[in-house]
Amino acid sequence: MNKAISIPLSADVLPATNASTTLRDLILSKELAFLMEAHDGLSAAIAARAGFKGLWASGLSISSALGYRDANEASWTQVVNVVECMVDATGIPVLVDGDSGFGNFNNARLLARKLEQRGAAGVCLEDKGFPKMNSFVGDRHPLADIAEFSGRLKAVKDTTGSDFVLVARIEALIAGHSLDEALHRADAYTQAGADAILIHSRKAVADEILAFANEWSNKLPVVIVPTKYYKTPVSAFRSAGISTVIWANHTMRAAIAGMRDICGRIQSEESIAGIEEEVAALEELFDLIGYDELARAEERYLPKLTA
Ligand code: SPV
Ligand code: MG
Fold this sequence. Notes:
With 307 residues, the protein is of the alpha/beta class. It has one domain (19-248): Phosphoenolpyruvate-binding domains (TIM Barrel). The chain is 46% helix and 11% strand. It is built from 14 helices and eight strands. An eight-stranded parallel barrel has the order 1-2-3-4-5-6-7-8, surrounded by eight helices. Helix 8 (146-159) packs parallel to helix 9 (179-191). The longest helix is centred in the C-terminal third of the chain and has 20 residues, at 250-269. It starts with 9 loop residues before the first helix and ends in a 6-residue tail after the last helix. Sulfopyruvate is lined by residues 58-60, 70, 97, 134-136, 225, 227, 248-249.
């Protein structure tokens, strides 16, 4: 009997212990969990290799990698296709940034169903309209009506399986509303069936996030994105009972810095001799993308080479 081959690489690349940890396990665990941003198959494989047990398919990073703004310029089908590559390249759970769901309840449930079919472990929907704008850009972040957004959440919950994780993201603090408004929304989204609450902030300190966590007292797990309050030590998040930290854009920003420096050097030096030791070896690339598995498959499936 032929054994199914794994394409392209999962078992060859990942520590076996990672593959069986579900997103639900991570988010519900008493331990503080970390999701690392990725935006394509390669960055996903690198993050998994580093030991992360779950990934954040960042809307900002996926759209940036495609050359688009994080304002729903990339279509939902483009996002779904990228997520599929991330899933194929790793085998660890992927929480997808579903923005505001690309429309009403109907668009949101279609997006979630397609993500689930392609192997995503969950989706995060934010309570804004379509098109949304990245939370760190400008001041125009009108919030969705609570009842209407709750309908989006319910539709996703009714459409997806019980393992698929639905994270409701509250943008009230981003939009300049009060902590009470954020808490009120968190209650409504809990009623609507969310599995976790992502509370977002763009302040340089974590005070409003920690105040939220304190008042909320873990009615549902709390997920945070400390991009702007990056100086806050994770011990503060542990003490506050936060469930999950998302490092939301750092493979993308590392790639920008690396590519910017190397392009500049090659351009000015008119040579690649000086940078050879500074870029990843081709062997590392072949290893990350599982060329060894392909070589074994060739042994099995291709006719033997004759001299
Ligand atoms: C993303 O990574 O796309 C996010 C997080 O949604 S943020 O950029 O902070 O809005
Ligand atoms: Mg986003």
